[in-house]
Prior knowledge:
Blueprint: E1 7-9, E2 19-30, E3 35-37, E4 41-49, E5 56-58, E6 62-64, E7 70-72, E8 81-86, E9 90-93, E10 103-105, E11 107-112, E12 117-121, E13 130-133, E14 137-139, E15 143-147, E16 155-158, E17 170-172, E18 177-179
Parallel strand pairs: 1-2, 2-4, 3-5, 4-6, 4-7, 5-8, 6-9, 7-10, 8-11, 9-12, 10-13, 11-14, 12-15, 13-16, 15-17, 16-18
Amino acid sequence: xxxxxxxTIDSGANSFNNVTFNGSGGKWKPITNSMTIAGGxxxxxxxxxxxxxxxxxxxxNIACGASCGAIDMTLNSGTGTFSQTVAAAKNxxxxxxxxxxxxxxxxxxxxxxxxxxxITTSATPTSPGSITVTNDLTIGxxxxxxxxxxxxxxxxxxxxxxxxxxxxxxxxxxxxTFTTPIPTHRNQQTP
Length: 191
């Protein structure tokens, strides 16, 4: 619940169960170790930030509370992978009506640790916050990722040219919008 901007998290070799960030203006980042959350991650206010190559893994839902906090894993030269690895159907994303909070990741990965499960990127018609991925979006084998649902579009922004790596998983975009740069090609001339 801190509202300070310099909060750090040192989990050592331990994992957390459920984590909630809820401090207006507050900012938190892992400091020396990658971070594992065995339960859910709730972002109600403030910003959860990246830090260098440290990774974050969440095994439960990743969602907003009554309001929506931000995730920006690209801050502090963030190059780590943010992963949601599930053993049951889970949700991911902002879904508070009227909220425009966006989440940003360097590398984003969705996977299942057992049999085939689904992750649904939550959305409502009035929560247009985008999901930005700077490097790779990876969808693991046996996982089904549903983007927003058939009536609630999700806005995805990819900074790396080309489409995400699916890796034997399944990605249903429904009516979501996908923005990606057009690859540049140099003309090669033969002397």
